[in-house]
Amino acid sequence: MTKRQDYISWDEYFMGIAILSAKRSKDPNTQVGACIVNDQNKIVGTGYNGLPIGCNDDEFPWSKQGDFLDTKYPYVCHAELNAILNNIGMDLKGCKIYTALFPCNECTKAIIQSGIKEVVYLSDKYNGSDTSIASKKMLGTAGVSYRKVISSVQQLHLSFDETDV
Fold first, then answer.
1. pLDDT tens, 22-43?
2. Are 34 and 79 in contact (CB under 8 A)?
3. Which residues are catalytic?
4. φ/ψ (deg, to 5) at 101
């Protein structure tokens, strides 16, 4: 018997962790997850977009429009920032971050400052926007590479049915 041939790549695995992390987000519009990996392919941080610890997500707005303080924007931490802040307590220099959505300019600052050297993303739906242009300019200047994940699988199925194990 030979080994299985249809296993997923490291990129697919870590992007899958980022996508699974996004399922923890309470945001009704956009769920984003992120996964930070060291040079030995070990996960050192994960995050999703949500409110800071101690802020009850039932007491804050989730709207995208309206007066600034009545929207989610001043309160929600993005997935990339949460993954950096939630890391296991190690230096992130040289790590990769997998994120479901190309990082905004604010998260890009944190990515660069943390020492992460590569961004792997699934969607770049805001490509061409001011925040995306600023992010790419900063990443390029700081020598942080970025690339879209390439996957040979369209989707993966997770099951909590114990008979599937």
1. 999 999 999 999 999 999 999 9
2. yes
3. 80
4. -130, 135
